[in-house]
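Researcher: Here's the sequence for the chain we discussed earlier.
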Amino acid sequence: MSDERKSDIDSLRAELDRIDRELVERAAERQRIVSEIGRLKKSSGRALRDFRRERQVLDGVRARALDVGLDPDLAETLLTALIEASLTRQEAERVSASGRGGGRTALVIGGLGRMGDWMVRLLAEQGWRVVVVDPAVDAESGTAVRELERAPGDFELIVLAAPIQASAVLLRELTDARCAATVIDIASVKGPLVDELKRAREAGLRVASIHPMFGPDTRLLAGRHVLFMDCGNAEALHLARELFADTMAECIEVPLESHDELMAWVLGLSHAVNLVFADAVARSGHAPDALADIASTTFGRQLAIARDVTHENPALYFEIQKLNPDQPAVLAHLRNAVDALIEAVERGDADSFSERMLRAGGWVEGHQQARRRRTHPSTDDPGHDPQENHDR
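Model: Thanks. This is the structure I predict for it:
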């Protein structure tokens, strides 16, 4: 390469560096304005998210991109990332400003687990004084102990973020001790806890049950669901809902007795499908890099979800499969569907294959339309609802 050409490239790279710095600075300026808008929205009682405004912004950006010769999809991707960052910042600031904890003390049992840690952070942002109880605590202190009996002081709230069966045992112990705190569990399967929740209610404990339907890496709760189960104590249910009142999470009440049957489909089935997919590929005899250069778009998308699933806690995922009393029926449906697919292919039955594919596609499309109606109630935009974190 000639010295002249190298000088031209260096000059252009310097120009790119300048533009990149300006982009970062402008993004920071945008975030500062976003914070001010968030404060004004809070003072006027307005919702944080405005789908119609978002669509107007994105449509304007796409039009401007066409004017200046930029790919509109690229422009929308950039602005979508900035909008999500803005919502995340506004939500975090609103949660922090709420001060709902008011210096009260909360105990998170299992607080070093991934979802336990998520709950610790949520409570701390709200102004709760949080004490963690977890056998994995290295050095005990005033805010972290290994055993419940060693937790200092009195607590107004106890969150059970331990494994499912351990949470049932802890709930029994708290009932026997006539615990005065409000007790909330976050278990992904409620079956093992149902009797203990009823027993606690009958003993006069303030108990409620919730299920955050997202993974521990989730930052923005817009479009995410939190399920609430009324265990017979209105005060406890109110406190549980208050924990998410300043977020953009969709709070859904579900009867306690219906929870596990629903979760068998939306959690157990999706986990099982992705585990089977990943296991089949791992057993294929192909080295991981052998398929890397030839992977299809569908394979890549499926592998991305399977990666999330297979990097989760195996003990928790086994509990979700094993402890849900409705899971065997769902796994039987999965087995039947796989058998029917294999049978159609082996018999060369294209009609049966097509019928199943079209029927499944119709159901999936109906589900997508229902989600769009719920997540974009004020706009006709079809939207796009990727999951940055798989559900627990």
